[in-house]
Structure formats: structure tokens, C-alpha cells
Amino acid sequence: MDSLPNPSLLATRLRNTLVRYHGIADGEWKVAKKTKDATVWRKPSEEFSGYLYKAQGVVEDVTNRIVDHIRPGPYRLDWDSLMTSMDILETFEENCCVMRYTTAGQLWNIIAPREFVDFSYTTSYEDGLLTCGISLDYGDVRPNFVRGFNHPCGWFCVPLKDCPNHSLLTGYIQTELRGMLPQSAVDTAMSSTLANFYSDLKNALKS
After folding, report:
1. pTM higher than 0.85, yes or no?
2. 199: closest CA among 172, 176, 169, 165?
3. Tens digit of pLDDT for each residue in 71-119?
4. With 0-12 CB in 10 A as exposed, 13-18 as middle and 19+ as buried, what is 203?
5. How far is the C-alpha of 10 from the C-alpha of 4, rounded, in Å?
6. What is the spatial distance between Cα 111 and Cα 108, in angstroms, rounded to a whole number?
7. Domain definitions of the chain by residue range
8. Top-tier CATH class for 28-206
9. Are the CB atoms for 172 and 18 separated by under 8 Å?
10. Nearest alpha-carbon partner for 54 in 170, 157, 189
11. Per DSSP, which regions of 104-162 are E strands?
12. What count of other Cβ atoms lies within 10 Å of the Cβ of residue 134?
């Protein structure tokens, strides 16, 4: 089993990377999907041969409650239709952990179930919160799963200035699914998954 990196150094590096993504000019993004709940853009990733996706939408709730539903914890499995299991492997501080989770097959199982081991970190950002993560090569892969890899990912959630009980939720996702997959299938799945994430989250917050 690989040793874990220094959590405070990794957390700082991860936060700085996500803040840099958050500053990328609008003109560098190309719209990949638009729904009533969210818009999804993409651009070539600097980390691997796929895309960095950006998703954004307004969610009707306060920042803390939204982030509690996104970050590792008891809520996420209840509403995220893609996630099938989640275990916290290590906890460093209240806002910092290593988790292992599995995802369901997608696109009529063209994309088989995946397993990820991610370092997760939640911190303050402006008037709201940033919850972010990156995959680690850690532990053995369970049978019947392909081990995927999340390059730096994260969700910025900040209250709307003129309507503080609504929040602007902006996500940056770059997932390397690995395995033998047609790139077009991966691109279709990513755009749809991110758009569905918003509608599922909104339904969960209303219930």
C-alpha cells in the first residue's frame, strides 16, 4: 500500500490549483451542455489527454447545507445516483480525509463501474466554501471495478449577494475513467453526469 502524502501540503496545493481554474477566462471554455439547472463547459485538460469540465448553476439553499451534501459524509450516498458506495479510509482533521467510493455503470454499461480513492479537503473561500479533491494511488483495487483517477476537482459554493439564501455552485471536474473506452462515450457521459448532478442535488435539498 502506498504511503499517504502530507495532508496539509496536498490541501494547499489542491486549493491553489482550483483557485487558478476558477480564474480561467470565459473565452477559453466551450459549452458542452445546457439544461434549466446548469451549464457545462469544457476545455482541454492540462493534466491528461481528456477535458477539464466546468459546471455552474444557482442552487436554492444556503452554502453550508449545499456543501454538506457534496463533500464526503452521510448525505452524499442518499442522493447521488452515480455513487454506489463510500468509505472514509483516513481522517486528518474535520475538513480533510481520504475516501474510497464506487460509481455505477453508465451508458448501458459501456462504461463499467469504477472505483476511486480520493483525498478530500473543504475550506473557506470568499463568503462561501470550496470542497475539492484529487485521486491517490492508494490501496488495492477491488474485484469487478476499474480504478479511475480524478485529477484536481472541486466545487466553489458562494451565496448570491442580492439573495443570500441562494448560492452559486461552480464545479471543476477532470476525471480519467481509464480502461478501454471510446472518448466520445466518456465526453457524453461527463456532460450528462454533471448536468444531472445539479438536478439531483436540488431535489435532495428540497426533501
Report:
1. yes
2. 169
3. 998 899 899 988 999 999 999 887 999 999 999 887 666 778 899 999 9
4. exposed
5. 10
6. 8
7. 28-206
8. alpha beta
9. yes
10. 170
11. 114-125, 128-135, 146-147, 149-150, 153-160
12. 23
